[in-house]
Amino acid sequence: MSPSRRLTGPHPTLATVAERAGVSRQTVSNALNNPELLREDTLARVQAVIEELGYTPNRAARALRTRASHMIGLRFEPAQEGTSNALIDRFVHSLVEATARTGHHIILFSGDPDDLLDGYDELLRATAVDAFVITDTYAGTPQVDLLDRVGAPFVTFGRPWDDPSAKYPWVDVDGARGAELATEHLIAAGHQRIAWLGWEKTSRIGEDRRSGWSRALAAAGIDAAGLGVRITDNVDAARMAAHELLEDGTVTGFACASDTIAIGVLHALAERNLRPGADVGVVGFDDSLGAQVTWPGLTSVRQPLEQVAIEVIDLLHTVLSLKTPENPARMLEPSLVVRRSTRRD
Amino acid sequence: MSPSRRLTGPHPTLATVAERAGVSRQTVSNALNNPELLREDTLARVQAVIEELGYTPNRAARALRTRASHMIGLRFEPAQEGTSNALIDRFVHSLVEATARTGHHIILFSGDPDDLLDGYDELLRATAVDAFVITDTYAGTPQVDLLDRVGAPFVTFGRPWDDPSAKYPWVDVDGARGAELATEHLIAAGHQRIAWLGWEKTSRIGEDRRSGWSRALAAAGIDAAGLGVRITDNVDAARMAAHELLEDGTVTGFACASDTIAIGVLHALAERNLRPGADVGVVGFDDSLGAQVTWPGLTSVRQPLEQVAIEVIDLLHTVLSLKTPENPARMLEPSLVVRRSTRRD
DNA sequence: GCCCCCGTGTTGAACGATCCAATAGTAGAG
DNA sequence: CTCTACTATTGGATCGTTCAACACGGGGGC
């Protein structure tokens, strides 16, 4: 597979290959970039030499000349509200996978946590990246403004919350639909009084998900009064909120804005000797590692991150080739992973 | 902060800056790379223009001329034995953080899961990276052999298991010491019959950690016979193994090779109505997100990944400047994060 | 027969930085 | 005042690739 012929010494260049194949540099370049311009036998001869020498074009030289680095920047930072830490990691994995096919690479950078713009500018001015993937659009979008202003291509994972009519390309997962799925699932399992445990009102993602819960309840003709609670994303806060809701004994279902919150509910159930699934149904959000290992298994809404990554790269490709994407706003459907926290048997 | 003066148009180059400052290109270059060569006032003038124009050297041009890309490659793949998925993610975060200070950047790539070498060669031949960080040395080290052969710099996170006398630079965390800490902690909490739930014998990391457990038991004069069990890294396998060990009622402590396994033990305790901490002590490994949210909180061995990343980058720096590192083999100490799964109150 | 075009290849220049060798400037010593 | 020694600055060449323009022979179309 990997042609590891040359084991040492300087790397071969276009000129090396050209000389060896008895053609000009440009012809070798064409063999790589515009093979259809060459006569069949010439092409074959050049390709043979390329293979023999294990030649790969120098990225720096190519980038310098074409002004395209084939690198995509992603600011990678510690935990964030909403888009939970682990989620981002899974997304990055998918992204790397998706870029592998296109010859692009992901380059990670970090920045001052207090300055959302930190880092972008430098990479751009150094022409180190061709484009960016932006992952946190819920906290306003100064990055988008910056990149728009300087004309740098980008795609976001996350819709333009502030300005739904914004024209930039984005991919997102329908969180409201996810919460709706969760709630419908609980209703189908026979629950009626289903609580929502979500984030503070300032969280756009949180309010969006919550709307899916109310929609499902409304559709089933269930009164939501007193059942929607807003807390911080924290096991203990969730545990205490759950205790309060469970007090009068009527609430038997919990749809949650995150797995962390759902796990907090499970803690409360354990402390009250209630059985998850049989007595009380609980659904989390994001299908995190925690959901997968927590006892007795947490039903959770899963975002199709692999597909998100593929769509992001597809959009990026279109944008980079200066075309206008047909559908620059792509909303994907989440799915429900059912585990024992909602099984009544 | 971010000098976003120029909002559009072509990027300024060395020549632009030189002309504007009334000096030559080389002088501008020196202002950036060898400021001590310039007279004070010249330096100040040049720096002012650089600031004014928001100039940043073109990375491609610089890389082409100096043959140094200032990029570090990291093969980033889905879940792996031992070094659990989440662990790698945390490490990458720390690594990005650590590189930020040195002007280097992490570039991620993926490869054919069946070919550990896939991807390295191409990046090298394209001179896209200066060096690599390698994270999985437990499965033999074909990457190390390859990179050694072609003379490419690298540092590994993980010691050379196959050949302890290997000369390449590495950083690792003392897993045996971690398991020893865990076991000592359980002993201090009053437990005597402390079981080990670890991975199969083929896992070097697993056997290393296990040795820490036996060392601690031996030091306390406790007989380890029948207490060491090897299973796959899986909640359910751990749950069943725990049930078996708990059968005769004498085992009251569990030291585990991973949080996943420890969580399996917690499941078994729940099913037997045993209280984690009060009745049975459980310690996991890696301080994963799961350990932090699982009820009632899982005591776990934490690897100092932030420090690992710093040491890795430090070694890489030394190697890249063609120096021989003073201490190319760096073993770091893990610590214990105590939570309720080992509290008797 | 003339001209243009098409298919193949070639050559020189350019991308933007740094390295190198050579030069202009600046003191200090004799 | 000149010479030396050193410093600051300069112009040109270079890294490896692609772009732009053009050379060359062979078909048509007229």
UniProtKB/TrEMBL annotation, chains A, B:
Looking up Pfam families in the UniProt record yields: LacI, Peripla_BP_3
Query: Cross-referenced Gene3D superfamilies, in alphabetical order?
Result: 3.40.50.2300, lambda repressor-like DNA-binding domains
- Lineage, top-rank taxon, reads Bacteria
Keyword Transcription regulation part of the UniProt annotation: yes
- Single Gene Ontology MF annotation: transcription cis-regulatory region binding
Keyword terms, alphabetized: DNA-binding, Transcription, Transcription regulation
Q: Quote the protein name from its UniProt record.
A: LacI family transcriptional regulator
Which species is this record about?
A: Nocardioides marmorisolisilvae
